[in-house]
Amino acid sequence: MLVSKKCWDEVEAMCQAALCSYPSDLPITLRLINALSKQQYFDKGMEISEALFQTYPQDLRALHALLDIYISLERFPEAELACKSWLKEEGCDDFFVQMRLGRFLNRQEKGEESVKWWAKLYQEHPENAFVVEGYFDALFLTNNYKQLEELCTTWFKSNKEDVTIRLKLARLLTNQKHFLKALDLWKILASLESTFTDIRIFHGLLDCFVSLKKFDEAKSVCEDWRSRLPDEEAIVIRNARVLMQCGLHQQAVNLLLTIQSKNDRRVYLFLTECYLVLDNIEQLKSITHHWSEAFPDDVDPKLHYIKASLILGEIDEANVLIDNLEKEKYDLSESQSKMFVSCLLLLERLDEAKSVIYRAIESAEVGRDWIRLLVQYAQHSRNASLSSLARALDILTFLGLDTTKAVKATGLLETRGGWTFKLYHCS
């Protein structure tokens, strides 16, 4: 009754009391370990489990209790050793223990050892789905894709309705950019009754069609899956993204505005991008304001809001917001730093813009966007010599010269004298 009511503390107390009279009783100790696990007292459970396993080194129940504790603590090396210790005992060749050992090897990414172990199990149990899945993972660890595909091909011949292995292979091929091969698998999965509403298949189909620039097919997939899962917001959001990639930004806006939830950052991000393209600055300012309210620690909506204010000519408000950003000392990403600089340039806050630009150009992997911002800065500052250097740098990078070499060739950083830098930087 206590177990059915999940009164695990009381179960623990009863087991402890019983063990005072029967200190080596296996069933009572197993119940105690289970009660401790349910309360997440894993360290205490491990101590008791290890002692129990030493007392009953050949007992399968003692082994599995110990393995379960090790899994909860993510102590996979100890779990591996426990399995190997048990399997060395005479007459101990339980298939499930062999499976668990293979999984522990995979979790530790012991590639070659994992492959050998699973190959042995596969030879003995070629029709076991769990063995095939474990062997798949081991082959993936060693990048043995040819053998992996052969394994799957053999499996699919006798398991035409398989989902698990087909999903794993489809995702692997998609991630490796073998989109046509992957697409065949995603289409088969989409046709199976058992996976009719599995959203992973929707994402897989869309990943392939979008990567192959087959946007009409991508739109059809979105429409199909919206009918399958009409309340799934993730499908609506990806559908909107496809419409944006097709240049149908107003349709994307209309779709995104049907989403009731305010918890997905992508909704705000995509609406912001759409309003920028549609030149609907009032709506841009409105959506970035709502975005900031929903995600107060997010810098992106603040920067977009400042940009919208500048476009609308609200200079004083933009200056105040920039000052606030500086006071908060955000660690800006590269894309955020670029947007921040563009706002500084529009506000004619040139010294601040200069410090961020030069800080970025000192980076070994600076892109051409920063060079273009330098050109804009030179134009705003009316610095003829800097403008010439910046344009030369832009041309050199456009022609394919490594940015670091181009910067050295122009002598740009040597011309900056004692200029100082502010806190903003690219992370």
Automatic annotation (TrEMBL):
UniProt keyword annotation of Repeat present: yes
UniProt key word Metal-binding: no
Keywords: Coiled coil, Repeat, TPR repeat
Sections of the chain in a coiled coil: 308-335
Gene3D superfamilies: Tetratricopeptide repeat domain (1.25.40.10)
Highest taxon of source: Bacteria
InterPro entries in alphabetical order: CellSynth/LPSAsmb/PSIAsmb, TPR-like_helical_dom_sf
SUPFAM superfamilies: HCP-like
Record-given protein name: TPR domain-containing protein
Taxonomic path: Bacteria, Pseudomonadati, Pseudomonadota, Gammaproteobacteria, Alteromonadales
